[in-house]
Amino acid sequence: MHWGHSICDAVFTHYRISAKRGAVPTFLTGGTIVHDHWKPYYAHMNGVDAHALCGAHHLRELKAIEEIEKEPWATEMSALLISANQLRCTAQDQGQTELPEPVRQDIIIGYMAILAKGLAFHERQPPLAKSPGTRGQKARRPGHNLLLRLRDYRDDVLRFIADFAVPFTNNQAGQDLRMMKLRMKISGTFRTLEGAQVFADIRSVISTAKKHGLNILETLTLLPTQIIARL
Questions:
Q1: How far apart are CA 10 and CA 212, in angstroms?
Q2: Which of 12, 20, 115, 145 is most buried, judging by how many CB atoms fall within 10 Å of its CB?
Q3: How far apart are CA 20 and CA 120, in angstroms?
Q4: pTM of the model as a whole
Q5: What is the CA radius of gyration of the chain?
Q6: Cβ-based burial of 194 (10 A; exposed 0-12, middle 13-18, buried ≥19)
Q7: pLDDT one-digit tens code per residue, 27-79
Q8: CA-closest candidate to residue 7, choices 170, 225, 213
Q9: Residue 212: left if φ>0, alpha if ψ -120 to 50, beta else—which one?
Q10: What's the pLDDT tens digit per position in 181-216?
């Protein structure tokens, strides 16, 4: 019952095995980490320069709130995030390194207006009934929780329009984890922790070598110092 963690970008992949899900990598320094707002990332990754929240995760949540909860603000927020990403992609294709300030401000103003509309919608809703004996804060609807996150972490949600080096999603991590997941489905679990760790090391080299366009078998036959120099 161990966990596999992935850290990656367009040219490097690192896999590691951990006994606890919350034992996230804490050795990262500098740069921006893109993730799904799992709280241990914020609590333990203090060495990075900034956090960014995955747009694909937000779009999935917004679609569920739109279709299941029938909250109209979710449709508007989805459209805004998709439009903002399209504007950023168009600007990148044209060789720009940032969005014009008026465009960025229009996106932020629209974003805040949708948040205000959504929060006003939830203020009009009757409170959810609490189970007898339940302690703590009043329960919130899923849409309300998402609105509060989008409000409190606005800069991290919209970091992709402020910094073109930050992707809209963390899909790269999901793609790099597919082979690990496939191995688990086909071969099952490892019998020893050492075996899992060796597998993670080898897969880190294979994935990184592929991203560099290198011959995988040739790379694996090199000495560790040679592999490090080549990658």
A1: 9
A2: 115
A3: 40
A4: 0.88
A5: 21
A6: exposed
A7: 889 999 999 999 999 998 989 999 999 999 999 999 999 999 999 999 999 99
A8: 170
A9: alpha
A10: 888 888 888 888 999 999 999 999 999 999 999 999
